[in-house]
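User: Okay, second chain of the day. Same drill as before: sequence in, structure tokens out.
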Amino acid sequence: MDNAGYVSLTRQTGLLRQLEKVANNVANASTTGFRREALIFSEYALPTGPGSPSLSMATANARFIDTTQGALVETGNPLDFAISGQGFFVLQTPDGNRLTRAGAFTSNAQGELVSPDGYRVLDSGGSPIFIPPAAHDIKLAPDGTLSADGQPLAQLMIAEPSSPTDLANQSGVLFKTDSPLVPVENTSVRQGFLEQSNVNPVTEITRLIEIQRNYELGQKFLDREDQRIRSVIRTLGR
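Assistant: Same drill. Structure tokens below.
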């Protein structure tokens, strides 16, 4: 394959990855707490030899998590929480602490506040939150302080990575980071609400169609290049 084919192939690979991301966004347009994800294309030059022009190729390995606020929908469930502003809830998982914006929590058999997957929600001190089984009136203050029957229980940990770009999607609505977590100020937590996905279905479907067309154009170029090379080989072989 000549240089033109290699350049086009790197672009096709990036478009295919981007297509997968956009399709996943569309599929999760109704998933509570989901964050839109995209790929960032970058260009790098490959030297071809002394006195020869460099070869420019594309790559799409950098990921971008859109942290734009999603719409808040009232549910009335006392254990449904939504963050209004920046930050994430912190969950304790077997693979380490993970971040999420999906606040549909419940109480397990031990009385701990957990996610639907059974991961324990952590308080500002990094400890699990216990809700007494006999508690009736559960309240959540805007600063994340949780109380039961008028008695304070704990304050939810609302944090974000110290490096804003160091955030990677692990699966579904869970995110991981290698940066230390820092508390988020000037944000509030609302009880009886859930944050919806921040995906705009119309925009994402339009983008999906655009990527598919670009991929098809690139494939046609590769087919023409293949035909050209075959024609040259046949001509030289005579």
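The chain has two domains: 3-66+199-236, 72-195.

User: Thanks, on to the next one.
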